[in-house]
Design brief:
Structural class: alpha+beta
CATH topology: Penicillin V Acylase, Chain A
CATH architecture: 4-Layer Sandwich
Strand content: 25-35%
Helix content: 10-25%
CATH superfamily: Penicillin V Acylase, Chain A
Length: 302
Amino acid sequence: MPPHHDRWSGRYGPPHEGTVVELDEDSNGRATTIVPDVCLLVIGWQFVDGWPLVVGANRDEWLDRPATAITVLQDSHPRILGGRDERAGGTWMAVNEHGVVCGLTNTPMPDGPDPTKLSRGRLPLIAARARTAVDAADALADELDANPYNPAWLLVGDRESLNYLAVGTDGPAGPQRLDPGLHVLENAAFGVPSVKVDHVRSALHNADAGGRPLWEALPGVLTDHTVPGAPSGGHRFPDGRERREATLAPCVHSDGYGTRSSTLIRVGAATGDLPEILVADGPPCTSPFVDAGHLWSPAAGS
């Protein structure tokens, strides 16, 4: 276990992007933005004794957009589980039998995704086809060099490494290896100031200080409806555009939009052990987390 202060750091689908960023108005009539797909991704890497990788994620999306919270995305070599967007295809998070996990958050785009570019939902599945997170990060880098994608941010990890990639943004090119600790990603680049990230990290830090293990603390954080106080200038994305205030809460409830599902994954230290996965098929504040481990069995089909 590293020193305490080191622990707290900042289906292939159709060929092109099928998700649209839509604009709404806040109470003052100003345009605000909603960004689909995972809006909160928490990863503890080398953070919990005996569990080198612990993941919690909320997927935020339009309420009428069809999706499957958890299914078999690939039958074998390796077997891959994850959610599936039934309209555009692809996934927001995937985990394979070897313990490689990849999740993404989308970059806010004023005019919506470029329809001439490939769907970001392909990327977690590409990553999860690798045997290790390092190989997955390299495969993603090769894919991104070869094909244009709409911008996003990804975390891909396993027992041995955690890697961050910025897709189609001004961030550093290529994978970045992250240090052991607790890492929180929302719809902003890793390390960019975010009241949502700060709130989540603080809540988990307080739970840790109170003796609550990360695995036990994550459900409470993922169901939290607290909207953190905004700095002067209001609730904005890093590029200055305003955002719906409700999207700053870990568990989002807004008009026609909100947290659609929640996922907990942990990967044990023994390489032969399959990852544990629990899924709430609906907002986790009202939908129970259910063990999805039966899907690792070939009898579960796809």
